[in-house]
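Deviations from the work plan: none for this task. Representative record:
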Amino acid sequence: MKRQGAVVRRLYRMGLRLFPSRLRENHGGEMEEMFADAWRDASRLGWTARLRLAARTTRDLTFNGAAARLEGGGGMETWRQDIRYAVRGLVRRPGFALVATFTLALGIGGNTAIYSIVDAAWVDALPFPDDDRLVVPYNVPAPERGGGFAAFSAPFYAALRDAGAFASLTDVVPGSANVGGEDRPERVSAARVNASFFDVAGIAPAHGRAFTEEEAVPGGPDVVVISHGLWTRRFAADPNTVGGPLVVDGTSAVVVGVMPAGFDLLFHDVDLWRPTHVDEAAFTSSSAVNNNRRLIGRLDPGVSSGSADARLTAAVDAMRQRFPDALTPSHDVRLVPLREHLYGSARGSLAVLSGAVAFVLLIACANLANLLLVRGEARRGELAVRAALGASRGRLVRSLITESLLLAVLGGALGLLLATGVLEAVRPLAPDNIPTPDSALDGSVLAVTALLTLATGVLFGLVPAWAVARSDLRSELISGGQSGTGAGRPAAGSALVVTEVALTAVLLVGSGLLLNSMWRLQSVDPGFETEHRTQVPVELAAARYPDSESALGFHRRLVQRVAALPGVVDAGMGQFIPMAGASNWGYQVEGKEENGVSFADYTLITPGYLEVMEQRITRGRALTWQDAEVSASPVVLVSEAMARRRWPGKDPIGRRINVNRGGAIWREVVGVVSDVRNRSLGEEPGDLLYFPAIGLPMASPRQMTLVVHHANDRAPVAEMRAILSSLDATLPMSRIQPLEEVVRASEGRRFFLMTLLGLFAAIALALAAVGLYGVVSYSVALRSREIGLRMAVGASRGSVVGMVLRQSATLVGVGLAVGLVAAVATSRLLESVLFGVGATDIGTYGAVALFLSLVAGLATWLPAARATRVDPASVLRR
Amino acid sequence: MFDSDPTAFLPLNPRVFAILLALLEGPAHGYRLKQAVEEQSNGVVTLDPGSLYRSIAKLADDGIIDSAPPPISEAGSDARRRYYRLTELGRAVVAAEATRLRGLLAHADRGRLLPG
């Protein structure tokens, strides 16, 4: 901790250099002390507080340092002269200026884009007052194994709410609703919340009001609060909407409030909030295990974290005493800050991407340093003249740095535009745990970009300036600027090439590993067919379909009419389509009750579903419509994986399982279904239960998804719409999606990382190739006399090209070796998203080495071949 | 009376005004000024060291404040800390800004914007 403090102080002192020296001498010490105090306070609050202080300090030093310099006016005239001189130099060589600006823009733009994502996830305040006090409780059944999940049952919620650990704790039950009745029916995401929800968020409706405690009671009035989006879409943002009616799931409700634009808490894109209540009289051992709600709380500033923990533990104990079956002996509750809950899982991805863009920027800097070195060589004569006319060495160095800073500023400005474009492009790809801000023009992002720009300008400007500072300018003047061999230059150029190749190799290995994983995932058999399959979510209103029979009647008519459409091969319904959100539930096996409860994913299906998905019945029979009737004897289908695991070597048909807690209802296994990958392509098939579409303790057949297998690319959407509205005019039809898209979306995180990392690797490769080309061209040009001589005395073109190639091959080889070793270390960061390949996959490393060598070979061969076209006679005459 | 016209500095940046108001109570060092400004704004405004000392340097250059010996009660507490006080010009500038603000308030009051 102390060490870290010292490092941070040193960094701060470096930052102070942005201020004019007089201000720094007068106040630097006190500024440093003030910052050190703030750092100590932030350190006590945790690492996000430190990150936020760092961002704020960067902004403070950059803006105020620049402003103080402008206000001070001291030395401005010299600056102005230097800038004029630099501008003139760049205008004279527009090609150089253009290449340099673009190279920098790529580097700075990529960094700005990724930093603005990091900023939104970890630095910016969340849009709630006192956002640091918002926490999401996690249900942790096995603390020794860590993890846990953010869902609780109603009785557990009630126990925690009354524990006295929170200023306020609220529950949210996610779901959806049909709004509009027969007038433009629409299906929207809805959440049931209680009256304290809006207090916890700390945000009041923009129009109207939130629910009152009196409204959130059983049999209370039908009131809803709607989102800004729904308000604009359905009511054209009419302020008189408040107090007016809205048909929700077949009954008329009153709109009491409209939330401000952009409001969401815990769930994205919710359009409707309905009051819920926790009915303590109805708690049973079954409701105690139904983890159907998310919780979010606001910590009480008056309760220390120690005593909050003690109160939570007491609440868990009370819960265990009342419902012994619902909790494990070591059950625990963990409070996770809201920010961590939302974005914590993306920390690895963001670290990888930040590293990748930093590499791109370093390569861009190396290229520019090299370009400027070459220019410096060409300008030695000019600099010598300026020195002879009385310019001090310091002044010359300063004017060179001004030039590189000017380039950096141009590149930074273009980079900001690029960054906005990159953010725009990645927004549709970004998974939920990666926020993509609307633009890169946020205060601390601008400050970081400015700092990056300055650092870059100084970094690549220093190399040529150093070359000037140590050279002998006087002898330069005497020889007329002709003799410059630039002793330091080839070494510097070589070092730059090695660095670029090494950094590029690291990026190529990373994106190669991901590409390899994606490719392997593509060839994984998910166990079901997606081509020419389309899904249509259907949600029946409880008011119109109060029981299983009425829902089943609807499903049966729908499936039969859709299946009869021309161009439709099969149709069926399922509750959870693979990879579109799974749910699991506990069950007992008859005869093995002593083993307790095991968990399996489950779904409800209708006849036709397995045919659409092309899943086979490997033993026994499929489900029929009769199985879903109330009078039918209870049956279930199981997956092959589950049959193997539960009844190894035995016939599962005729065995029975129970999914009802308290009062067993034994269901007979009548069939075995071929396996599917239910949650993601990367996960092996597991236990999966298929029930007929009837009411179960954990599921209602009212929410199902129609899946249709159509003969060609076009799904018969209009015809399905017509059938739905003829069956029930209040049913909306939205979120129709090809199954292929559903599967692709489930691989969103990998795809996002692969796309961005691939993009950065491609940029790095292009920059490194250009850099290598530049270095070789220049060294060949310097040696044109030597090459001419060699050819005059009989060397063949081939041997000359070979000589040049061999020299660059050494540099590329060293770079590759360094890069591949570094890649072994860095690729471990990717391990969690790789599939089917290890972080040290030999094939990938070999392919990268080969590919990079080929590109490097080409970048060397072009200038080498050109060099051999010199006319030996003309070289000798010079 | 002064080399400069006090009204030439108006309107003052609210942050600068807050610093000068704090100095009306007597000489103070940078840290004290930071705390005073943050207290005045109920914690809404936070003064980072860069913006604080840039303001102080600018005010000193303009002759609105100058450095002062540490007050007797705090002498020897920390030799490195510099104390500042308002100059005559500084007092005139604060007064001019306050007068300007009062004019504005009166204007707003005529529009019956202010409660009470």
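Residues 53 and 112 of chain B are 39 Å apart (CA to CA).
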